[in-house]
Amino acid sequence: MAIRVVLKMGEPLLLQKTAPVARFDTPELHALVRDLRDTMEALNGAGLAAPQIGVALQVVVFGVKKNPRYPDAEEVPDTVLVNPELTALGEEVEEGWEGCLSVPGMRGLVPRYSHLRYRGFDPFGNPIDRSVSGFHARVVQHECDHLMGILYPMRIRDLRNFGFTEVLFPELAPIEE
Ligand code: NI
User: Fold this and answer.
1) Domain that holds residue 139
2) Any catalytic annotation for residue 143?
């Protein structure tokens, strides 16, 4: 297991587009997934995308149980998603607060589609096809944005809704990254 360094905003690798994974069930892919999971868990993240640890491939991990970063968040199943494709279900968009391990100490209010279908594969090449809503849909959109070189501050509509976690949500400050 390995906890990797998470790249921070300003690093050009975070702005790159990523390549699809060409071969499933390889030692390299399983090692990448292990590192993503170990790093996400160590930092109490809701998700992590391969470019955040410097790997320009279409691999994300996410999952929320009881996460101190998101105390009111709904549970999201532990998922490894490779080569994802997202389709909005309907036009409905909702604003919600997001953070990112690549933008430590900050939160911003970000619009996301409320209802989402996502497809892709697990690391063994088994298909994944889910239709989800709410926080689950938000997490997937956030993580898959990383694969296109998009960080959540780039989606904030009004930068007055962007700030330091310790100021916006003082009750979260003691457990912030
Ligand atoms: Ni992020």
Assistant:
1) 12-176
2) yes
33 found inside a domain: yes
**Into how many domains does the chain fold?**
1
Question: Tell me, what's the pLDDT at 177?
Answer: 41
Whether 4 is covered by a domain: the verdict is no
Q: What's the 47 CA to ligand 1 centre distance in angstroms?
A: 7
152-165-48 Cα angle (round to 5): 45
- pLDDT for 74 equals 84
pTM of this prediction? Answer: 0.94
Work out the average pLDDT over 18-40.
98
Cα(154) to ligand 1 centroid in Å equals: 12
| Cα–ligand 1 centroid distance for 156 (angstroms) | 14
* d(CA 172, ligand 1 centre) in Å: 18
Query: In angstroms, rounded to a whole number, what is the distance separating the alpha carbons of residues 84 and 99?
Result: 21
Amino acid letter, residue 81: L
Residue 100 lies in a domain: yes
Is residue 40 within a helix (H) or strand (E), and if so which, with residue range?
helix 27-42
pLDDT at 176: 44
CATH number at residue 133: 3.90.45.10
DSSP state of 171: G
Neighbours of ion ligand 1 (CB under 5 A): 100
